[in-house]
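A further point concerns the way the authors explain their paired sequence and structure data. Showing the layout once, in full, would remove most of the difficulty. For illustration, here is how one protein appears when written out as sequence plus structure tokens:
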Amino acid sequence: MFLPVVALTCLTSFVACNAGVAFHNPVDAGGSMLNNAGDGFGEPLNVIISGLSSPAVLTDGGILNYARAIGFSTECLGIHIGDPQSANLGDGHGWVNQTVELREDYGNPLVGTCLESLIGGNHFRVYRQNGPSANGGALFLAVSWEEPASQSHTIAPDGYDIGRNALVANANGRRSFGGVNYQTVTQNLTGLLAPGSQGINHGIAQDGSTALLTVQIL
């Protein structure tokens, strides 16, 4: 079951009434709502940070600070194990590697992700929709809950839905980090992802829901 959400009254068919575009559906221009995780399978892009968010949130530094406000940080000692995954967001750039991968920090943004690397937890990859044919700046996240290092960091059973729901629970409402205060409102979208496990990495089924987060700096 997806977590309760607050409807965004100014969104109609993903377009704000007066302020631009929250995001473009990648599928409309030949992209995909699954990234490329290798071997012909992908992870669902199950969270979108709206292009209607405060512009500072959508920058590289901005998403990192926001991630720290909701319980994530950079990888342990800056070390990344495994190949980056790519996504095609239908913006004219084709398949582009992830901008960054962030992990649950267990309350310590400096070294907490080392614990996540050891015992498992939530993590996400970030992709920016900013190509010449869809330059709204929305950030697409592939969120999943992973097993501990002893189980090779594979995705937990139901890990895509669990990871998305945990991130939404952490993000909703008011959060702050580094002197920046955020207000996040979430909408549950259906129809972007097909429910089930077809094409999904590790054959793990997901419920087909996508969380759209609009993040404002207060």
Summary: The chain has one domain: 26-217. DSSP finds three helices and twelve strands in the chain.
